[in-house]
Description:
By secondary structure, this protein is mainly alpha-helical. It contains seven helices and no strands. The protein has helices spanning about 1-10, 15-20, 25-40, 45-60, 70-90, 100-125, 130-160.
Amino acid sequence: ATAWRWTSLRLFDDFWVTYVRFDARMSGLFLGGALGLWQPRVRGGAVLALAGMGGLLALATTQSLHSASALRGAMTAAEMASAALILGASSIQPLAWTPMVWIGRMSYGWYLWHLLIMRILRVVGMRTFWEQLLIGGGLSLLAAAVSYYTIERLFRVQRDKPRLNRHAEEPSSA
Length: 174
């Protein structure tokens, strides 16, 4: 999937066409999802998690997000730093705090909604980093929470309902 992102950037020769495509992000989505489901215990988890956080912070403060090089190198580095954070997260107590767990639950919806909301903000003229971060981030988190507690809730309720086992053995009459 990482190679596809690089290839897509070369084929379409357009940052935005590649940036907004979900298939250009599949390597990170698959990696994060697999690690989240697997939840392996690793030695030195706290060091790994702190290294992941440091890597993400370094990328966020040093990289231009709207460039081809960000899609090639920085996004791949962010996927690796995120993997390190996921692997070591259980070793860092503050990451288990209720607000952090809630943000984790909202994170995928937040990611999905931010694409649309940030685009709308750019169209209406909000171009500065801080406007987009504060207003766009806040509105995206609000949209994620609303969809989590309304739309997604319906699917979670359906998923958690007990199922009747039609093939269960009936009590035998002896």
